[in-house]
Amino acid sequence: MKLSKQDQELWEIIETSIKAAERGDVVHQLLMLSLGRVWFKHMKSAPQFLDVPGTEQMMAFHAQLGHIADWIDAAVMNDEPWLKNVDTQGRPKKLMKFSTLDQIVKEADKAMLKAAQTGRGLDLTGSSESLVAELAEGFYLVELHTPEALDRESAFMQHCIGQGAYDRHLKDGKHRYLSLRDPAGKAHVTIELFRSPAQVSNKEELSSLVSEEAAPDGHYWTIKQYQGKQNRAPITKYTDILVPYLKDCKFGISDQANGLNYIVDRNLNWHPVSNLPDTLDIAAFIFSGSNYYRDNDRHREKLRLPKTLLNTSHMCLTHAIFEHFPAHSLHNLLLSSCIIDSFDSKALIGENLKVSLINCKLKALPEVIDCLTAALDLRHVEQWPHTIKTKGRAIIRDLDQVSTPIKVNSEHIEIFLTTNQNIDVEHNLVSDGLGVHLSKDADILPRGINVQKLTVGPGNSKNVFIPDGTKVSLKIHIEGLSQIDHIHFPSSIPDRVLLTDGYTMNMHVGEYRRMRRQAAA
């Protein structure tokens, strides 16, 4: 089946994300048949933020990618029989039956628990594990050296480090596997270390990640995964026991190991998120508070961001609470499910800045947003900006929640409406192209449109009302045009403007008006 240009772009985004799992061609293809296919279907059903990789939906898929990849990788390594039970196109039927992420995760969990039941009886020799460090309260850290040691760890921790998925990394010199044990020898935390940097092509790119002083030979160890039992985040007690040793080793922390609740700067110094310095030198500032706020003592605690960020191009903050958001020189900013009291007036201004604000509770956005691209979810914003200006695309969700006029000037604007609320508010929407996506409870376009091309997705509505004063100079595209009972065209739209559904219907607005007059007569 041939994909549309937009669908092809989405498929490529998903394929690139899955390639990051680095599992080889066979596992990659199986991941695309299962996770990739379901991911694609899910994102097509929620198109409002297709090109924003930090949406809640995409983050959920990213969070489970490693777990699902471990399961499929182990299945390939062990030549599981279900891989040979295929359909007429050679696709494993087990993978093709999935329609949701939850179904795939449950299947991976089931395989993990089955392997755990068979792995507990392993008899390890003395060379399978070695002591790395003695820690507080009688705890100690061991390194796992053999497939049998990984299988035993997997059996007791009920995750997928065993079953063969990680065996090939044991001797490559780029991976190490550590296990935190209590005085009785019981495992509580599994750590995967990776010899960084990965895929760095030159010294300049390396220096953007870590200082030469911290990694004089160009390499350093990074905590790639930090997992508790059943892939849950380890409890705070175990993290507190481990952190002094991990800090002394000057390990980096990947975004997958963010449950440690520390930020590591370019000098490989560790900073607790509860007490960040005023100035922080870091390539990418990434933090998720979902594990941090799990501790009841931190409930609703407001974190303080650094006033100055050095050498930082990306910032991604999710599920966290901040009192104030300072102005920084960034290329990419993603805020998802955050609570923020205030912004610096220049926080969302930058010639090369790409901004994504998703499902955040904000008391007030800056009055002016001026950046390269913007994806803005305005559902939970108390005070809106009065000017949004982008060189590229601007996506605005729930503009109907905005009760004061907003001026939007962008190359292309996408607007999503869920109700006919605030229909009398006249915005100033100026663009080459504007896409308006209506829901079943919205059939009225916003006021103040001035564009060359207008695209309308009517949802389930049988009527489309284009307000008086709307200006369109070239074309109006209405999806499912033949299913629409009535379209209100104001006199401000000339008869010469082309009206189309992109498939079977092409006429000018003047023709449509004449047809309606004849039908009424």
Quantity of strands, as a count:
29
Task: Please estimate the helix content.
Answer: 10-25%
Contiguous low-pLDDT stretches (5 residues minimum) are: 47-54
Helical region count? 9
Q: What is the name of the CATH architecture of the domain at 123-265?
A: 3-Layer(aba) Sandwich
Rg, Å, rounded: 27 Å
- How would a textbook summarize the main sheet? 14 strands, mixed
Q: What is the overall shape?
A: globular
Task: Describe the 3D structure.
The chain has about 525 residues and is of the alpha/beta class. Among the domains are: about 5-120, no CATH class; about 125-265, Aminopeptidase, CATH 3.40.630. The protein has helices at about 5-20, 25-45, 55-75, 95, 100-120, 145-155, 205-210, 235-250, 510-520, and strands spanning about 130-135, 140-145, 175-180, 185-195, 220-225, 250-255, 260-265, 270, 280, 285-290, 310, 315-320, 320-325, 330-335, 340-345, 355-360, 360, 370, 375, 385-390, 395, 405-415, 425-435, 445-455, 465, 470-480, 485-490, 500, 505-510. The strands form 6 sheets. Strands 10, 12, 14, 16, 18, 19, 20, 21, 22, 23, 24, 26, 28 and 29 form a 14-stranded mixed β-sheet that branches. A 6-stranded mixed β-sheet has the order 1-2-3-4-5-6, sandwiched between helices. Strand 3 (about 175-180) and strand 4 form a beta hairpin. Helix 1 (about 5-20) packs across helix 2, helix 2 (about 25-45) runs antiparallel to helix 3 and helix 5 (about 100-120) crosses helix 6 (about 145-155). The chain is globular and about 95 Å long.
